[in-house]
Amino acid sequence: MLVKKIFIIIILSFFSFNAFANTPRSTGKYNNWESFVAETEKGKICFAQTIPTKRAPGAIQRDQSKLFVTFRPSENIKDEISITSGHDYKSSTVIASSGKKRYSFFSQKNFAWLLDDQEEKNFIKLMKKATNLIVKARTTKGAETTDHYSMMGFTKAYNTAKKTCG
User: Fold this and answer.
1) pLDDT per residue over 60-115, tens digit each?
2) Is 157 within 8 Å of 48 (Cβ atoms)?
3) Nearest CA to 69 among 9, 120, 14?
4) CB-based contacts of 28: which residues, under 8 Å, 6+ apart?
5) Which of 81, 96, 159, 164 is least buried, going by the fewest C-beta atoms within 10 A?
6) Buried b (16+ CB within 10 A) or exposed e, 118-129
């Protein structure tokens, strides 16, 4: 009976460990931003993320919006900017802006990305200097959504994610 209990505990521990192995773990919270690390079959993934401080219009039902910067060393990916506004996008209708700077993102389903490495580098420079960022997008039905993001804490969260995957 004791052997059976030990066997069950070992099996449950094994499955519990595997279930949580892919769960992102926070590596730091910095004002409105937080950095995370997760272990996957392809290796370590690190990212900094935030959620909007304001979303409009309130009448449109959608999932959580998020802005990410991701590092995946095993795939040679660094500084990957992605956005989800909590809904599927109408093709190529995602614009992020701060002051006079505007960036167009390409979209697929409910995520959007910048086109190339240079755009990502420029966008990260903007994020480090900006206080706020506004993301405007259109749903597949054509309704406009607007998310306001605070950049307070971005640089620390970004540096932590970058160092963790460095």
Assistant:
1) 999 999 999 999 999 999 999 999 999 999 887 799 999 999 999 999 999 999 99
2) yes
3) 120
4) 34, 35, 156, 157, 160
5) 159
6) eebeebbebbee
Q: pLDDT tens-digit profile of 146-162?
A: 999 999 999 999 999 99
Residue with tokens 């590092």: 71
Domains and CATH numbers, the chain: 23-165 (2.60.40.1880)
- 102/119 Cα distance (integer angstroms): 11
Find, among 131, 81, 125, 130, the residue nearest to 104 by Cα.
81
> What pairing do the DSSP bridges indicate for beta strands 54-56 and 77-84?
unpaired
Structure tokens at 44: 């370590």
- Supply φ then ψ for residue 152, to 5 degrees: -65, 120
